[in-house]
Amino acid sequence: MTIETKAETTLGITPSQTIGPFFAYALTPRAYGGPELATEQVATDGIAGERIRVEGTVYDGDGLPVGDAMIEIWQADPQGRFHASGNAGFTGFGRAETTSEGRYFFETVRPGGLPGPGGARQAPHLTVSVFARGVLVRLATRIYFSDEAANDGDPVLALVPAGRRDTLIAQRGGDGVFRFDICLQGESETVFFEA
Amino acid sequence: MSLIYPPQSLQAHPLNASPEYKSTLKRAPSQPLILLPHTLSETTGPVFGHVGVAEGDSDLTRQHEGEPLGERIIVTGRVLDEDGRPVPHTLVEIWQANAAGRYVHVRDQHPAPLDPNFTGAGRAVTDADGRYRFVTVKPGAYPWRNHHNAWRPAHIHFSLFGASFLSRVITQMYFPGDPLFKYDPIFQSVTDEKARDRLVSRFDIDTTEPEWALGYQFDIVLRGRNATPLEEPHDH
Ligand SMILES: [Fe+3]
């Protein structure tokens, strides 16, 4: 199959700008009593699957917490199906603001594996967007899980230099919680993707 | 119908490392971004339709008992893809300062008055032609300490989803002819002049309603082009 596009009608896209420091009363308005479109609770009642909690801290290049970031996640359900492709009741979309200490969490179900490029299987993962004051364009990353054997064959992790792959893998602690810190810059900088 | 997302389109965006905007200095990744293949995780995304959007969410002047102070405006436009086709039934979220340049946000310390009749948050869903419409007041400019005498040009923050996570964008809409443009490192972080112009709304006399409100048109172009799969040649 080949792909054909009509070049003559291309419009330029609208450029991105920073979310700024003052988005909360519109996008994550719990503290303001506003209606919430989506929250940290991605697993709604009645969704089958293993309940997981992912939490972490967002840091800047000085190792200081980023207290004005918004994190969004997007994921498949435990069978590897996305919302649009027919699962019921599970949106797969979560949105959280960081606390003044830079902390965030999500409560969701563990996603299933997915088809990937070239017939390879993708290991279970969450798709992550980071927005913050001082971030002009959405930062795209992924959260993989430390206890998934399929990580070894994941075609996206394979694109990442071996020494940096750990920044994409949430580590499961003794309490069962997956810990995933996001470092915007610096020695342990999280891998970000051009998507 | 399916979409493709040419990576060249991303060139319209600013660089995260834009040092004139000081907050980027410690927040921009220093390692190169890794090119991600577009898998189902990227080419799908949340679809909101009318979920969570209430009647009246798009009129920011009627969310309280009284009317907010300031210059009443209508902001409307179409959400399009890169081929100029409308993006219907997509969520548009906005937030802004009040007419005095003050946000409701608890951390905004600018000594300008809050307006008890204005919160400054709105939502709308585009119609079948990709059109949205908000009624609000014109936001004021506000100081922000990025550099000496730093003032943001008047702007409204916009958040959109589109067809997938590849079209997800958060941006800002500006007003035509603002004298602060040339001093604003956030606006100037978009280095291509044509791309920068796409952040500026257009005053429109036909959108303007007599004796009531000035009208501004602001079209938003999201990533995504029509992918026409051609059938394999028949081999019989
Ligand atoms: Fe602002």
Automatic annotation (TrEMBL), chain A:
Keywords noted in UniProt: Dioxygenase, Oxidoreductase
Cross-referenced SUPFAM superfamilies: Aromatic compound dioxygenase
KW Aminoacyl-tRNA synthetase (keyword) present: no
Keyword Oxidoreductase: yes
A GO molecular function held by the record: ferric iron binding
PANTHER family given in the database record: DIOXYGENASE, PUTATIVE (AFU_ORTHOLOGUE AFUA_2G02910)-RELATED (PTHR33711), PROTOCATECHUATE 3,4-DIOXYGENASE ALPHA CHAIN (PTHR33711:SF9)
Family designation: Belongs to the intradiol ring-cleavage dioxygenase family.
Entry protein name: Protocatechuate 3,4-dioxygenase, alpha subunit
Phylogenetic classification of the source organism: Bacteria, Pseudomonadati, Pseudomonadota, Alphaproteobacteria, Hyphomicrobiales
Automatic annotation (TrEMBL), chain B:
Name used for this protein in its record: Protocatechuate 3,4-dioxygenase, beta subunit
GO terms assigned for molecular function: ferric iron binding; protocatechuate 3,4-dioxygenase activity
Keywords: Dioxygenase, Oxidoreductase
Example GO BP: 3,4-dihydroxybenzoate catabolic process
Organism whose genome encodes this protein: Bosea lathyri
N-terminal signal peptide: none
Domain Intradiol ring-cleavage dioxygenases: 75-103
Protein family: Belongs to the intradiol ring-cleavage dioxygenase family.
